Amino acid sequence: MGFLKPKTIVMPQAAKEPPKSVKAPPSSIEEKFTRTNEDGEQVETSAKEIAEEKIKRKKSGMTKTILTSPMGVDEDAEIYKKSLLS
């Protein structure tokens, strides 16, 4: 009566040890650490400098937009340009 016998249990392999982290994150905003910038270069910086760069980028983005009054623009838009065929 082999069909009544339970199947043998195959235990899965033991979990591998997780990879060790490269370095713990900085404990303060003043602590210097190295990171890779957009150009692929290794740069030594701090969390404070990164935050200041982000704020500067945000503020510069706001100054590039056209600011108008609440009344809107009174001038007509110049959408028709003369071309060789018209």
Commentary on this structure:
This protein has a domain at 29-58. The chain contains one helix and two strands; from the N terminus they run ββα. The protein has one helix at residues 47-63, and strands at residues 32-36, 42-46. A hairpin with a 5-residue loop joins β1 and β2 (42-46). The longest helix is centred in the middle third of the chain and has 17 residues, at 47-63.
DSSP helix fraction: 10-25%
Distance between the termini: 96 Å
Per DSSP, the total helix count is: 1
Proportion of beta-strand residues: 5-15%
Order of helices and strands: EEH
Unreliable parts: none
- The helix/strand class is alpha+beta
Please tell me how large the radius of gyration is.
Answer: 31 Å
Q: Give a quick account of the main beta sheet: strands, pairing sense, barrel closure.
A: 2 strands, antiparallel
Please list the strands of the largest sheet in the order they lie side by side: 1-2
Question: What general outline do the C-alpha atoms trace?
Answer: elongated
